[in-house]
Design brief:
Length: 97
């Protein structure tokens, strides 16, 4: 459960700009501000079930974006490749990042 939560937060870092403001608000309240569904529901004025569906929808979108675009996977692959290079080349590449 904690691994999935961390993975979703990483995906959010990559793909949050593809979400609308309302989706970002729900995700951030739940995952970053640690608000419960009930607390978000009270703050927003929607039912707890509506909040749950919206957060689930955002998570599904994040998984979809990673499945189609693979930015997180590709970044990890690049880091693994860079990690196997000699120090001089590594240093040059790190300056680009």
């Amino acid at each position: 459960m904690m691994e999935e939560r961390n993975y979703l937060i990483i995906l959010y870092d990559f793909y949050s700009e593809l979400l609308n403001d309302r989706q970002k608000e729900f995700f951030e309240d739940y995952y970053f501000n640690n608000l419960t569904l009930s607390e978000i529901s009270e703050n927003i004025g929607l039912s707890r079930n509506a909040i749950h569906k919206n957060i689930k929808s955002v998570c599904d979108k994040l998984y979809f974006y990673e499945d189609k675009l693979g930015l997180y996977r590709k970044r990890n692959e690049l880091y693994n490749i860079i990690g196997n290079l000699d120090d001089e080349i590594k240093s040059k590449i790190e300056k680009i990042y």
